[in-house]
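Example 3.2
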Amino acid sequence: MAMTSLPDELWTRILEIGVQSRGFTYKDLCCLSISSRRLRRLSNDDSLWSHFLSSDFPLYPSASPLVSSKSIYKLRFEKVREKRIAAQRRALLRKESQIAEHSRKIREFENRLAEETSKMKATLSEVSNLRKVREASVALNVWQPEVVRGRHKELVEQSVVPVESRVNTLEMEFKVCKQQILVLKKAYNDEKQRLDTAKEELSSLKYHPLQNQELVGGGLDESHANIKTKKLKRSIYVLVFEQFFAVVIVRCETKM
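Structure, written as tokens:
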């Protein structure tokens, strides 16, 4: 027996079993309604949508008898959808603010690293010059040609502070700079990791399950659209056929 020749009572029972057993969702019922005029009429039954109202929106007040349950379901669904979208936007703004703050801290660490690196290079250069002065002062006590001796003497006279104490101070400063650079690099890497994590979370937040992710209008010709419609109808009928067999099994078990 063809599925289209089934009586309305049996179709109604199939839909009732699907809705009451949570096998059908509001989306499935909407898909059934576009497959044929008959199923559209049957799927608009007020008792089906009344069940969806009580199960999907239990905290809302009871529906008015003057308005169809499907219309009330649509209004409540739109309200919940708007709240979810608003919450989604707030979450996106918070995450974007976090990303901006992480980026600001990373730029700050980069500037401090550049300053400490420049300071360490200057310290190394001064230490190198002071060591030359120390070597020159030692060389003055050893016989050497007059030209070389004059150059060493000039280097020693240019030093206005004791060489040894200054070298010790600069070496200590070099160690401090090196330690500071290690600390800044670790903080920079940690902040970079937090920034990457925040960007991944932002990407996942930007995917909204209520939005239609399919292409609309571009690149779909009429034949492709007809093929998709036929596939949709076949999948709908398979789903309904499963519910139909469930009804048959229930009836057989009842008779037995």
